[in-house]
Write a structure and sequence with these properties.
Blueprint (H helix, E strand, L loop, with lengths): L10 H26 L14 H13 L8 E2 L3 H11 L6 H14 L8 E14 L5 E16 L2 E10 L12 E2 L2 E14 L2 E8 L2 E2 L16 E9 L3 E14 L2 H7 L3 E16 L3 E13 L6 H4 L5 H8 L4 E13 L2 E11 L14 E12 L2 E10 L14 E2 L2 E2 L8 E13 L2 E12 L31 E15 L2 E13 L8 E20 L2
Antiparallel strand pairs: 1-8, 2-3, 2-23, 3-4, 4-6, 5-6, 6-7, 7-9, 9-10, 10-11, 11-12, 12-13, 13-14, 14-15, 15-16, 16-19, 17-18, 19-20, 20-21, 21-22, 22-23
Helix pairs in contact: 2-3, 2-4, 3-4
């Protein structure tokens, strides 16, 4: 077929076509800026339950570059991006590239634009059979909202509506139509080079552990606090001063002080030293939970450079002081050792009955070994009875009925064997075996003193764990498909076998669970000029 003659365009038509193409191009670039720009988000922190830390740990174990960052969380997007950039040239295996691809997409940054507005959210769905109960859904919805006026300032807010919160018997908050909710993060953050200051509510996690820590844990509800950090190449100093939930008073104390609850405060300071670059890091932390009826922050606890235990003794105002020591060592790529020691109260002398009190300490030790796409690890944790606990309710190491540290609280011993493997095609397999011996002691238990009935000559010894010990075996298997950074699907099965279930002698119980998990997260950054 012969070609049809084409009409000849006039110069006006050509100019109009050119303008239309230019207009379309500008619209496209504007939309691209609105939906792709990510530089302004670099100041926002990444919540500690995020999968990003799991992937970063796998990469850091193999390449050691992330050694200095996983000790104190949360990280900002800018910090995670710097680590990704440092590891990227060394990625060799398919697993490395998979983890890096997802982290790179999470922290990707185009041309920075300020001021910017962030809107978005996250959906977490767990649907299936839990602890041998009927099929059900546990949906969590999080809204994300942020304002980034310039490259130094971030204002960020996350509201969490979660069905699983209502399942907790000690949950503090409103329940509404099978949903419970609270503001999970709400802070103003100011960052200049080595200096970071934050005020508001955010997650906290201090110390290395596979799924828990003895220092400050993200199992606790995020605390309202002031946060300051100095971050040098081989030294990091962190300080927080926070407000905990109020402690209800007994009727006698209500009548005495004419109020119904005591104020509670948390103050903590932490110093980290990198003794051998990317090989050995040491942390020293001190904590104090103080408060009481009609009591406010004391100036000496607001000073981050004082020894809180000494101030507590000299001022005689009362306070639950704790000291933490922890380390992380990576002697070679693919091998890591880590540990923590938590000292609540240790007896040095044996002069009186009070000195017979058992030491209230906890320790955690573990290692991980990487073999290309597979990682195996072993961890042991032991926390004595009455650790984190005190006579006065307002000094217990709790926040909104949850431990501020390890989710098991105190009076337990635990072995944890875990492994994960990248199976290819964006699929990962996780396996965990846990052996747990748990006594009857709890952080919110009445602080008893049975040693006062003994003499110094005869001494005092007590069983660990205390009371009727619940012994349990937990098995967990998960297959996760992560096709896109913002989306993953997982199938998870759990089995647990208990002896002396719920500390009832001779009562055994088996529990099974199988459920499907969905993670979907999406944020948009919109330039405001």
């Amino acid at each position: 077929m012969d070609a049809q003659p084409q009409p000849v365009k006039s110069s006006r038509d050509a100019q109009s076509s050119f303008l239309e193409r230019g207009l379309r191009r500008r619209i496209f670039l504007s939309l691209l800026c609105i939906f792709k720009i990510a530089g302004a988000q670099e100041l926002a922190t990444i919540s500690t339950p995020h999968w990003a830390y799991e992937y970063l740990q796998q990469l850091g174990l193999r390449h050691r570059a992330a050694n200095s960052m996983l000790f104190t969380l949360p990280l900002q997007h800018r910090q995670l991006r710097a680590l990704v950039d440092s590891i990227n040239p060394h990625a060799q295996h398919a697993a490395d590239k998979f983890w890096l691809q997802n982290l790179s997409a999470l922290t990707s940054s185009a041309e920075t634009s300020y001021p910017s507005l962030l809107v978005g959210g996250r959906v977490n769905e767990n649907a299936g059979r839990f602890q041998s109960h009927d099929l059900r859904s546990r949906l969590a919805l999080r809204s994300h909202f942020g304002i980034f006026p310039d490259r130094h300032l971030a204002l960020f807010n996350v509201i969490n509506m979660d069905q699983s919160l209502g399942d907790e018997p000690n949950y503090i908050g409103k329940r509404w139509r099978n949903f419970s909710g609270f503001t999970e993060q709400a802070y103003a953050l100011l960052h200049f080079d080595k200096y970071l200051v934050k005020f508001g509510r955010d997650f906290l996690r201090w110390g290395r552990g596979h799924d828990a820590t003895l220092l400050l844990s993200d199992y606790a509800r995020p605390v309202d606090h002031f946060f300051a950090q100095l971050d040098l190449s081989r030294l990091r100093f962190t300080y927080i001063a926070g407000k905990l939930d109020r402690a209800p008073l007994a009727d006698s104390l209500q009548a005495r002080y004419n109020i119904d609850a005591a104020e509670r405060y948390l103050t903590a300071a932490r110093l980290e030293l990198e003794l051998l670059k990317n090989r050995w890091r040491l942390g020293v932390s001190q904590f104090v939970v103080s408060g009481g009826p009609n009591r406010h922050f004391e100036w000496y606890y607001l000073n981050p450079f004082l020894a809180y235990h000494g101030e507590q003794l000299n001022e005689k105002q009362g306070g639950n002081t704790l000291l933490g020591l922890d380390f992380m060592a990576r002697p070679q790529e693919g091998l890591e050792f880590y540990g923590q020691l938590l000292i609540d109260d240790a007896q040095i002398e044996q002069r009186g009955r009070g000195d017979l009190e058992p030491n209230e300490i906890g320790y955690l030790a573990g290692f991980e070994k990487a073999l290309e796409a597979t990682t195996i690890g072993l961890e042991y944790t032991r926390v004595a009875n009455r650790t984190y606990n005190t006579v006065r309710d307002w000094e217990k190491f709790l926040h909104r009925n949850r431990p501020l540290a390890h989710f098991y609280g105190n009076d337990f011993a635990r072995w944890l064997l875990h492994a994960n493997m990248y199976a290819g095609k964006k699929v990962q397999i996780y396996f965990t075996t846990e052996l747990l011996r748990r006594g009857e002691g709890r952080i919110d238990s009445t602080f008893d003193r049975p040693w006062e009935n003994a003499s110094v000559a005869e001494g005092y010894r007590e069983k660990f764990p205390s009371g009727v010990v619940e012994k349990s075996l937990h098995l967990r298997l998960e297959a996760r498909w992560h096709p896109r950074p913002a989306l993953f699907l997982a199938a998870l099965g759990q089995y647990a076998r208990y002896k002396n279930f719920a500390h009832r002698s001779g009562v055994d119980e088996n529990q099974t669970a199988f459920f499907l998990r969905l993670w979907w997260e999406k944020d948009w950054l919109i330039p405001l000029q």
